[in-house]
Amino acid sequence: MRVNVTVNGEHRQADNVWEGESLLYVLRERLGLPGSKNACEQGECGSCTVYLDGVPACACLVAAGQAEGREVRTVEGLAEGDELDPVQESFVECGAVQCGFCTPGLLVAAHDLIERTGQPSDTEIREALAGNLCRCTGYEKILDAVKHAAARKAEVSR
Amino acid sequence: MNPTRSPQQLEDTITGGIGESPLRPDGVLKVRGEFAYSSDLWHEDMLWGATLRSPHPHALITGIDTAAALAVPGVHAVLTHEDVPGENVYGLKYQDTPVLAADRVRYQGEPVAILAADHPEIARQALKEIVVHYQVLEPITDPERAAHDTTLPKLHPDGNLVRYQRIVRGDPDAEADVVVSGVYEIGMQDQAFLGPESGLAIPADDGGVDLYLATQWLHVDQKQTAKALGLPLEKVRLTLSGVGGAFGGREDLSMQIHSCLLALRTGRPVKMVYNREESFFGHVHRHPAKMYYEHGATADGDLVYVRARLYFDGGAYASKTPVVVGNGTTLSVGPYNVPNAKIEGWGVYSNNPTCGAMRGLGAVQPTYAYESQMDKLAAALGMDPAELRIRNAMSEGSTNVTGQVIDFPAPVAELVQRVRDMPLPPDRRSSSVDIRELPGGASNTTHGEGVVRGVGYGVTIKNISYAEGLDDYSTARVRLEVLGGEPVAMVHTAAAEVGQGLVTLQQQIARTELGVPRVTVHPADTSVGDAGSSSASRQTYITGGAVRNACLAVAERVFARAARRLGRSPEGMALSGGKIVASDGEVLAALADILGDEAIEETREYHHRPTYPLDPETGQGDAHVQYGFSAHRAVVDVDTELGLVKVVQLDCAQDVGKAMNPDAVIAQIQGGSAQGLGLAVMEEIQVAGGKVRNPSFTDYLIPTVLDMPPMRIDVLERADPHAPYGVRGVGEPPTISATPAIANAIRAATGLDLPRVPIRPEHITGT
Question: ipTM of the assembly?
Answer without folding.
Answer: 0.98
